[in-house]
């Protein structure tokens, strides 16, 4: 099964090389890596182009979902894999995520973040909450047919289902995309949250904006998207 790893990037010259190296080091070899330079003003695109075989696209319309949609339209894989430019997946991450798609009813799979560069208890507590708490919340929202939970930079999506749903929602620039995806895609099949499908990522946003403030922002947009009508998708076939 071919996978397309798409990496949206805005001014990520400091992290993009490590992210690409980790993506290319996956044990599952049937893959392509697509970096979408989202109007960067630094050397992000130049660094990405230094890796043979990596496709680098330009998206001047700023916004993570605009970049992801640009990548989706160029992707050839049966599964679209969203990964952030500061993520460091283990070598078997892709293989473990793709295994879920052996079930033809599965359209979305996601799992927790491991904030590897945050000292102290935050790293372990955040991972524990995502593994235990988020799994329960996801199951509840699935049962209520309200969608579920995905972690934006750790999301696997069946390409055909995403196409049927009219792609990524470009009405959302950043916050809320991880809620919008399972909400819209759940009408096409199963959306799974696998607590063992962990990916390492940076906690730099928490360090910059503050843990409580940023978590409150994420929660607000989660609830806003869950209980709003949002972008309409075509009816499931």
What would your notes on this structure say?
With 237 residues, the protein is of the alpha/beta class. It has a single domain (3-226), classed as Alpha-Beta Complex (Spore Coat Polysaccharide Biosynthesis Protein SpsA, Chain A). The protein is built from nine helices and nine strands. The strands form two sheets. The protein has a seven-stranded mixed β-sheet, with helices on both faces. Strands 6-9 form a two-stranded parallel sheet. Strand 2 (31-37), helix 2 and strand 3 (55-58) form a beta-alpha-beta unit. The two termini are 23 Å apart. The model is unreliable at 231-237 (pLDDT under 50).
Shape: globular
* Relevant CATH superfamily: Spore Coat Polysaccharide Biosynthesis Protein SpsA, Chain A
Structural class given helices, strands, pairing? alpha/beta
Percent of residues in β-strands: 15-25%
Strand order of the largest sheet: 3-2-1-4-7-5-8
- Rounded to the nearest angstrom, the distance between the terminal CA atoms is 23 Å
Looking at the chains present, what oligomeric state does this protein adopt? Answer: single chain
């Amino acid at each position: 099964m071919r996978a397309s790893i798409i990496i949206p990037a805005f001014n990520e010259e400091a992290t993009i090389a490590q992210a690409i190296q980790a993506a290319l080091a996956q044990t599952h070899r049937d893959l392509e890596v697509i970096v979408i330079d989202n109007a960067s003003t630094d050397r992000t695109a130049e660094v990405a182009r230094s890796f043979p075989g990596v496709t680098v696209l330009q998206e001047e319309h700023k916004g993570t979902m605009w970049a992801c949609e640009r990548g989706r339209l160029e992707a050839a894989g049966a599964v679209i894999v969203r990964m952030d430019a500061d993520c460091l997946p283990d070598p078997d991450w892709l293989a473990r995520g793709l295994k879920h798609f052996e079930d033809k009813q599965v359209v979305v799979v996601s799992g927790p973040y491991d904030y590897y560069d945050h000292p102290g208890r935050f790293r372990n507590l955040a991972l524990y909450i995502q593994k235990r708490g988020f799994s329960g919340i996801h199951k509840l929202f699935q049962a209520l047919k309200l969608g579920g939970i995905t972690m934006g930079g750790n999301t696997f999506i069946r390409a055909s289902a995403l196409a049927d749903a009219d792609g990524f929602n470009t009405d959302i620039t950043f916050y809320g995309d991880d809620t919008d995806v399972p909400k819209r895609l759940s009408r096409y099949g199963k959306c799974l949250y696998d607590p063992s499908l962990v990916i390492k990522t940076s906690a730099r946003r928490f360090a910059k904006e503050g843990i409580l403030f940023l978590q409150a922002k994420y929660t607000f947009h989660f609830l806003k998207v869950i209980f709003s009508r949002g972008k309409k998708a075509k009816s499931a076939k």
